[in-house]
Structures are given as structure tokens and as C-alpha cells.
């Protein structure tokens, strides 16, 4: 176990990729702070499940990461409850799809605040402790959309390109402090969010489930397979290992070949 006696905070970890990161770090012995929205009973089930499945401690923060004032409390929760924040994963994110001229300004502001600015604030509060201890791992969930664009996703693509730049900058600032900063850039990942889009798309386009998956969702992904949340989490665990200590400032695609095209 590579993270025994360490603490990991994962933003947006009440479902999907974030929950898989939290469980993978707990499996490696880390205490974890989970964060995000959802039904209180579902969140408590996930939090308690991490403790019983892996024998670590898990805390939950309801911080709304579009509100900078709530972000300091998230980092303090990790430090005060478990004594340190050693691994920080900026993962919370939302999407909105619309042509620029119709894109609601409040959606633009929300996506930039959550998918980009929240990572600036979490880093700002977590870095001093990591520097003091001389060790840290910061991992940002970017996206294939940090490397290439798609139409109608202006805010998401801008935020994801932005987080790739923030990652490089932080990596250079922290290079001599034992702290690495990297992005993982998934293509389409099989999460409840993606699965839930299928019935509507089948109806809207008159397609079968297989057609929606292959001709719509996986059109850009040459392997014609979804990435799994466990695969993304396994890369994050590797980035926390000693073997990855010279990987910093990288933007690592896990996209079935999407951005090779
Ligand atoms: P998801 O919807 O399952 O998870 C998003 C998480 O963010 C949830 O826990 C949600 O409660 C939380 N969240 C939403 N608004 C928040 C807020 N204001 N404050 C705090 N938490 C908030 O989505 P996912 O597919 O697991 O996506 C996670 C990350 O991975 C996102 O950054 C997304 O852009 C990125 N990503 C996803 C895919 C994919 O295909 N699923 C591909 C590339 C990148």
C-alpha cells in the first residue's frame, strides 16, 4: 500500500470518476475526504462503505466549489481531521452544450468557476502544507477537451484547456518541493452520467442503444470502447507512486486514441 498514513482530498467524488479515485486511494491506505452533491443517505453510504471496505477513515465535505469562500473549509477539513492533505485531486466538473451566441452567461460563469477556478483555490490552500512536508501529489481531471475542441462546448473546452495550463504552471513552481502536478485527460468514460444520456439520444435520433454508443458517443474514440472509472483511478494511483516522481507538468490522455487523430 503506497498511501498509508496519507490523506487524499478528491473534489466531486460522490459519483463517477471522483468516487473511483477516492476508493482507489483508500485501497492504498489513505484516509480520504469526499466532496460533492447528492442525496445525504447515498453520500453517507459511500462514505461509510469506504471505511468498512478499506479500513481507513473517510470524511465528507458538502462544499460548493463554485464558491471560493467554501473551498478553504474543504482543505481545512482534511488538515484538521487527518493532520495533512498529501494528495489533492481536482475532479469536480459539469458540462453544458450550446452555441456561443445562445450560451447562458451564468452557465459560462459556473463552468469556469467549477471546472477551472476551484482548482486554483484548492491548490492555493493545500500547497503550503505540502511544501512544509516536502511531499505532495496534485492531480487534475482534465479531458480530451483540454487538447482538442468540439463545437458547442465553449465553456468546458476553455476551462479544460485552462486547467492544463494551470497544471504546467504549478508543476514548475513546485518542482523542487517534492510535489508533482499532472492532469489526466480521459475521453468518454462509462459513468452513470454518460449511461443516462443513452435513452434520450435513442429516442431523439431513432437509433438502437448500440448505434448511440458506437456512432454517437464513441465516434471520436478509435478503440470503440469506453474508458472505465477504475482505469482512470489506476493511473492516479500510479501518479502517487515513487515510480512517477519525475512525471510532473504532464497532461496524460486516456482516451482510446481520440487525441492521436
Ligand atoms: P459526475 O457527474 O459523475 O461527477 C461530478 C461530481 O462533481 C459529482 O460528485 C458532483 O456532485 C460534483 N459536483 C458538481 N457540482 C459541484 C459543485 N458545485 N461543488 C462540488 N462538487 C460538485 O461526472 P464524471 O463523469 O465522474 O466527471 C468527473 C470529472 O471528469 C469532471 O471534471 C469531468 O469534466 C471529467 N471528465 C469526464 C468524462 C466522462 O466521459 N465522464 C470525460 C472526460 C473528463
Report the span from N to C terminus.
37 Å
**How confident is the prediction overall: mean pLDDT?**
96
Approximately how much helix is present in the residues? 40-55%
Apparent shape: globular
% residues in beta strands: 5-15%
Topology of this structure?
Blueprint lengths: L6 E4 L5 H12 L3 E5 L4 H15 L3 E4 L6 H15 L4 E4 L14 H29 L2 E6 L12 H21 L4 E8 L5 H4 L2 H8 L3 H9 L11 H11 L11 E4 L7
Parallel strand pairs: 1-2, 1-4, 2-3, 4-5, 5-6, 6-7
Helix pairs in contact: 1-2, 1-9, 3-4, 4-5, 7-8
Nicotinamide-adenine-dinucleotide (NAD) binds next to helix 1, helix 4 and helix 6.
Architecture overview:
- This protein has 261 residues and is α/β, with parallel strands linked by helices.
- It has one domain (7-190, 227-260): NAD(P)-binding Rossmann-like Domain (Rossmann fold, 3-Layer(aba) Sandwich).
- It contains 9 helices and 7 strands.
- The chain has helices at residues 16-27, 40-54, 68-82, 105-133, 154-174, 192-195, 198-205, 209-217, 229-239; strands at residues 7-10, 31-35, 58-61, 87-90, 136-141, 179-186, 251-254.
- The protein has a 7-stranded parallel β-sheet, sandwiched between helices.
- Helix 3 (68-82) runs parallel beside helix 4 (105-133).
- The model has no long low-confidence stretch (mean pLDDT 96).
- The structure holds nicotinamide-adenine-dinucleotide.
Amino acid at each position: 500500500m503506497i498511501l498509508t498514513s496519507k490523506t487524499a482530498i478528491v473534489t466531486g467524488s460522490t459519483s463517477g470518476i471522483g468516487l473511483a479515485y477516492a476508493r482507489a486511494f483508500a485501497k492504498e491506505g489513505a484516509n480520504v475526504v469526499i466532496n460533492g452533491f447528492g442525496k445525504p443517505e447515498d453520500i453517507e453510504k459511500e462514505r461509510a462503505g469506504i471505511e468498512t471496505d478499506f479500513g481507513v477513515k473517510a470524511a465528507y465535505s458538502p462544499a460548493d466549489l463554485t464558491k471560493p469562500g467554501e473551498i478553504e473549509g474543504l482543505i481545512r477539513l482534511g488538515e484538521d481531521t487527518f493532520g495533512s492533505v498529501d494528495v489533492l485531486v481536482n475532479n469536480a466538473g459539469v458540462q453544458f452544450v450550446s452555441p456561443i451566441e445562445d450560451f447562458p452567461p451564468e452557465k459560462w460563469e459556473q463552468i469556469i468557476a467549477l471546472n477551472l477556478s476551484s482548482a486554483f483555490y484548492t491548490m492555493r490552500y493545500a500547497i503550503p502544507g505540502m511544501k512544509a512536508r516536502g511531499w505532495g501529489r496534485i492531480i487534475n481531471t482534465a479531458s480530451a477537451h483540454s487538447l482538442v475542441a468540439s463545437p458547442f462546448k465553449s465553456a468546458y473546452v476553455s476551462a479544460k484547456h485552462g486547467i492544463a495550463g494551470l497544471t504546467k504552471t504549478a508543476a514548475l513552481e513546485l518542482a523542487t518541493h517534492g510535489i508533482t502536478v499532472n492532469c489526466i485527460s480521459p475521453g468518454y468514460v462509462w459513468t452513470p452520467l454518460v449511461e443516462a444520456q443513452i435513452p434520450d439520444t435513442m429516442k431523439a435520433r431513432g437509433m438502437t442503444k448500440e448505434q448511440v454508443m458506437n456512432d454517437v458517443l464513441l465516434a471520436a474514440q478509435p478503440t470503440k470502447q469506453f474508458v472505465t472509472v477504475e482505469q482512470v483511478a489506476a493511473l492516479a494511483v500510479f501518479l502517487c507512486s515513487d515510480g512517477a516522481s519525475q512525471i510532473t507538468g504532464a497532461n496524460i490522455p486516456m482516451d482510446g486514441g481520440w487525441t492521436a487523430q
